[in-house]
Amino acid sequence: MIKPPAIKSLFQICFKLRAPPPSHHHHYTTTRRWRRRRFVGMARNEWINGYLEAILDVGANLKTQKGVDAKMKLEKLQDNVKRDKHFSPTNYFVEEVVNSVDEADLHRTWIKVIATRNTLERSNRLENMCWRIWHLTRKKKQIALDDAQRLAKHRLEREKGRHDAAEDLSELSEGEKEKGEAQPVDKISRINSEMQIWSDENKSRQLYIVLISIHGLVRGENMELGRDSDTGGQVKYVVELAKALADMEGVVRVDLLTRQISCVDIDYGYGEPIEMLSCPPEGSGNCGAYIVRIPCGPRDKYIFKESLWPYIPEFVDGALSHVVNMARALGEQFDGGKPIWPYVIHGHYADAGEVAARLSGSLNVPMVLTGHSLGRNKFEQLLKQGRLSKEDINSTYKIMRRIEGEELALDAAEMVVTSTRQEIEEQWGLYDGFDVKLERKLRVRRRRGVSCLGRYMPRMVVIPPGMDFSYVKTEDSAEGDGDLASIIGPDRAQNKRAVPPIWSEIMRFFTNPHKPMILALSRPDPKKNVTTLLKAFGECKPLRRLANLTLILGNRDDIEDMPSSSSAVLTTVLKLIDMYDLYGQVAYPKHHKQVEVPEIYRLATKTKGVFINPALVEPFGLTIIEASAYGLPVVATKNGGPVDILKALNNGLLVDPHDQKAIEEALLKLVSDKNLWGECRKHGLKNIHRFSWPEHCRNYLSHLEHCRNRHPTTRQKIIPIYEEPMSESLRGVEDLSLRFSVDGDFKSNGDVDPATRQKDLVETFTRMSASNKKSNTSYSPGRRQSLYIIATDSYDTNGDSTETLSIIIKNVMESAIEKPGQIGFILLTGLSLQETREALKRCQVNPDNFDALVCSSGSELYYPWRDLLVDEDYDNHTEYRWPQENVRSTIMRIARLEHEDDDNMAEQMKTSSSRCYTYIIKPGAKTRRVDDLRQRLRMRGFRCNTVFTHAAKRLNVIPLFASRAQAIRYLSIMWGMDLAKMFVFVGEKGDTDYEDLLVGLHKTVILKGSVEHGSEKLLRSEESFKKEDMVPPENSNIVISTGYEVHDINAALETLGRN
């Protein structure tokens, strides 16, 4: 049983539940007397006795079961009461009862207690409180159980996928075995042997680089870092990266694309379309670096990143227009009119990663990804805390939508830039689209010239984040400059040297500003773990005697006006300062400017202080590098980037961010041992050059050049559209399209060599030219004022086409009858070309009435005015990472659910093609949804799209960069057509790619009643993200018509602003 002193402490705790908190510390004695009197008056209350009985009984069990742990908890509880600390019943219940008590014991004891009490004497409050604790405990255990089961199932499926891939890749030919003897598989490091370091020899290059960072407030000067959770270190990183890349030899222009925001609550500068970041030296021939702001979502509203997802396609379309125009402009200036396409499109974070993937697919240029922080990692951490269910996490953070964005970026990325090896193995290793072992195996096979059988994994590279050292003054790097006497000592009045304003702002908090300063600088985010640091400082008396603590937690005016998470952190900080009575020892200024951050580091250095980053997980650790550049020793979290940073700098200590005692000891060690402090400072200053921006950019461009060797190397060339009569517009129609030049090397994974591909393209252009001469049509897609795009596949319950499609085609064409030749028509369909021709024949519509037929869910593009020849350019465009025959049998195996018959799904050869494999689902058969199929394909290294069509009776497997939405973007570039002049007609439901057709800059008309049976039931599972995460709730570009008659269509078009 628990000893009497512990019982007494528990009684005191129970009385504190009823006792009012003291209004001032001077009333401490009075309050204690009140509590003693209250104890005598309440001793007979049965509810107290019953509740104590329940807790004491469980406490006894704890002591029996856990021994020392239970004793330590009880002793700590007694100690807290003796010191009369503010006791929080909520914290006690959650931390002690919910986390430690077996809910069955508590429930059993509670039942026993209330059963022995008189009903009239029982307290409803007690019963409700006990029930809530019991219910909360059960809920937490259920969340933990569900999470464990989900993770186990996911791990099992991953292992199965990896096993399938390993089996397929394990069989080596005789030639492969011979090569394998010459180069063992385990010597992976030799793969990089051919990578050339970027040097001044590349100054003749003309590289256009596009960086993308959508969320937050991005500007070049006086960045508002810490203003909110979206405006943090990533903003500073991308801005400085853009400036540094623009200074590299061979780079002609760097564009940093972000969201344009014109909101009264923020500075007007964020609404400026273009901002120059760096001006190149005169005569250099370079253009410099720019922030380009793309309109996206509500123009007058600042949107946090969790709510930006539905507007991603709109940003993609706006960015696409900018990049195409810039490519033309740069080509006119530097390359005789030949467009200079981006050397790379680099997405930062999940949202920009998805944008970069879409742009890469539209422009066929390499894409690079930097995750910064990862959704799966955050998801797992939140689940482990047990406070929120999976559904709550998903609704709050849109975490599943974020994860899908990251997976899509992995599908398209040539290279993923990470800051640490831990990020690769422990964070990216959680994703379906990446596996360390499989990536190494595929890399070895490519190195040997062996086919990868259609499988692909992006290359992960570790490039430490850079820093701008231009702000670091020479004196900051000098040894022994730590004496503040000349600045804040008695003779400071005679000192002519001006003290930076931020120094005075910080010093005013301190009773003794001469003590070493422990500096923490971050935004007020729970995951930055500032409260644990404050507790460690408050509870360590030796540390409080030796040092002061400075907390730079963003900028604030009124805590109540801040986001809830930031407000909660700052409120807790203030409460902890008050609880530990840290006035005069902790500084927490309300405001600081970005340009003052270097001065803050300098102040900490001059006091011989220490910088600490106690974050739960720190992906980069830029503040650690910054602090080290100013000679500050570092204490940092052992989770994430700081591990590699401190290994390189050797200037500090790593700690477990959850271990308060470890944080105390590390800080005390560096503050008290001046020799150790000096050694850490010396090492940091000596090695800091490894993290300079020039070094970062050299590594970045070198890795990128190496990875680009694996890219398909097709590069678009837009030929100017010449003014010519309408009747002759088809003469030389190849000038209106995109041409591709081939400039790459031999592709060891099965691609043809450049000479063969060049020959094929020449033959293709010859066929196109011959076809153009035979055509006698009198219109040109390049001369349309607008395009009407019909995407209303209508099927019955059996998956057969209905007559509704023909009615819609005729009515849409009739709606444009008043503008002959000015409006073109495109058909987007999940049907094959042969099925499309048959459908048009049945409804007596001439295929020549269409400018383009996009068939097989966007995998094939045909031009009726070219005798229905396939667009070879588009065909080459979409071949990237297409696994071809290698995925055929895999689909059959993974699409079926367990316990389903093998013959419930079969490939339909007559509708399949080289870019689309079609599978028929038999009536009554069940199959996996699109999200599940993508997951299983990614686990096996396959990158492709899956679309259910024909009222969920057919599955089309198509290339990664092929889709109906991407076909629209391709045609907009090819024909120079503004996406805002394209009108897409859809039904109220459709194929599983339906949502992609609703979003973007094009106009959408939803024809009510036109489609009765869709395939949306096979799109996503209940646990995935929702439709509102893909389609904005309010969109002025979408109109729902009352029907699909001509007058209904005309009314909808007038609403959308048809000219």
UniProtKB/TrEMBL annotation:
It comes from the Eukaryota. This is Uncharacterized protein.
